């Protein structure tokens, strides 16, 4: 732990208005605060090139930190989420870092990078400029520790289920076709990642589509849906207002066809241009995050937003049609469902969706260290 904000730090903050930038003093400007019973403890922290810069009436904090953490618990750690706060109420005053696809045994250490830009009022306060705290830790048995202010339990659980799914895929390839088959699968993954079409999606809350306002002509377009046989949630109908390269107010009706109560679900959204090329666009979450969807009950996923879709070159992407699918479901008991690998392959979604963090990690391991390193990594599980 570092000492509280001291007089020198207050004086430095007051001088920021006259200074272009100032490096952060780790002893006074940053406080790392983990609970006493935390399963993760801090071994060391390096603030690197972290700096504070005055900009108008705000202080811009560029954080470039490297933490070394230790698993002080008795379970293997699969994921960690860190909350970084400069100001609770200021827009841009909070950020987070989530690290999935971990496999940290009790007593082992692991690194965590924090690369964020935060804002806070320029006037000095009575404490450190930045607080770093623990939002959650997911263990190998899917138990969880932490305040979960950022809904980290669900996010980390989704990533871990995807990791298990994709590791099993590569292990089955290795078992059935040997190292050469695994090599082909790794190369195919890298090729898909390089060729995957990408979009720049700009989101504005509410409001009328600017294309429509400029006379672009707005029309209502219905979603087509991909249906997964084992999905607990069934999309029933969906529409959005489309004008050129903008979509406004997506609204999707769903039904809980499982026998369990559902706490949360998300609908993946894919758009197609006039040439028939498909792009991953966004996810549409449940409308009411606090509502429980009982078996047989219908609910809505909607957003009061306008989304503008731009290609990587910055040119508008005219929207011809849309497609949706259930991307994740959380039940009331905390268990989570994600699509299996076969369903994604059958729906040809793998060429559009971003790979899971685990598939990225394994394919990157193959690219950097070769086939033998990937084989040895798979044998650990």
Can you put this structure into words, describing what you see?
The structure is a single chain. The protein is of the alpha+beta class and 381 residues long. Helices cover 22% and strands 40% of the residues. The protein has six helices and 20 strands. It has helices spanning 7-14, 152-195, 210-213, 341-346, 357-369, 371-379; strands at residues 22-23, 30-33, 40-46, 51-55, 58-71, 77-85, 94-99, 109-121, 130-139, 144-145, 199-205, 219-225, 233-243, 246-256, 262-272, 278-285, 298-302, 305-311, 321-331, 336-337. The strands form three sheets. Strands 11, 12, 13, 14, 15, 16, 17, 18, 19 and 20 form a ten-stranded mixed sheet that branches. Strands 1, 3, 4, 5 and 8 form a five-stranded antiparallel sheet that branches. A hairpin with a 7-residue loop joins strand 12 and strand 13 (233-243).
Uncertain spans, ≥5 residues at pLDDT below 50?
1-19
Compute the average pLDDT.
89
Largest sheet: 10 strands, mixed
What is the string of SSEs from the N terminus onward? HEEEEEEEEEEHEHEEEEEEEEEHHH
* Strand residue content: 35-45%
* Rg result: 23 Å
- The total of helices stands at 6
Structural class: alpha+beta
* Envelope shape: globular
What is the strand and helix layout of this fold?
Blueprint: H1 7-14, E1 22-23, E2 30-33, E3 40-46, E4 51-55, E5 58-71, E6 77-85, E7 94-99, E8 109-121, E9 130-139, E10 144-145, H2 152-195, E11 199-205, H3 210-213, E12 219-225, E13 233-243, E14 246-256, E15 262-272, E16 278-285, E17 298-302, E18 305-311, E19 321-331, E20 336-337, H4 341-346, H5 357-369, H6 371-379
